[in-house]
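Researcher: Go.
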Amino acid sequence: MADYDAQAGREPRAGAGPSQRQRESDEIDYHEGLRGVAGIVAGAGSVTELLNKVAQFAVRAIPGVEGAGVALIDREGLPSIQTWSATAPFVNEIDLVQYRDLHEGPCLTCMHSLRPTISGSLGSDQRWPHFGGRVARMGVHSALSVPLIVDDRTLGAINAYAAHRDAFGEHAVQLACEFAGPAAVAVYHARLLADAHESTDRLQRALASRAVIDQAIGIIRSRSGVSGEEAFARLTRISQSENVKLHIVAERLVEEAVRRAQARRQ
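Model: Structure:
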């Protein structure tokens, strides 16, 4: 039996579960979704594009899903709307309500408890009195959120929604949990690669800025005969007095020197 946080007083799909034929069909769809996630190549697109692929494969892999989204936790430990994707407009609307407007809902509960969270009737779910009623009025009554975890580190969650009540039973929760493992690994690698690219870009920008600053120091020294330390101090004073970044002051000085040199040649 899957371990999850269920809606109090409401067991998902009480009574008989899916038939053997339905289970077999669900398993086929699950493995197709799993193969899709396994085929994702980190670095082939942005993190947001990868999240969208994961969400699309989740719709295929998890029974009963009509729309899904993936949210990542930012470095302050909060769901980041900048790294977030959805397969349908109604999912986008639901998660905007959850993250930006009300700050409550199954995804947030799931990432706090580190357990799958399920609701079969959002309008009567007391865990999210504001979120549940608002989403139910949109015609969405079932939700399933599963955490994305790698090495005890929570990355975010997969959020699945359906219009009818009690859409997600234990079989759906089980497949969602199994799908979340490789999905989390794919997201983790994509984010690592994106962070590495960002660090490389920052380093390249810093090196470029350093080169321009060194050029500006050389220009000041050639004009005034001061030491390198004094030339750097002059640049710093200009930067502070004009409230402009140091590398921008240096760029202006270098560009001015280039213009003067070109004018003399002409």
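Model: The CA atoms of residues 69 and 86 lie 4 Å apart.
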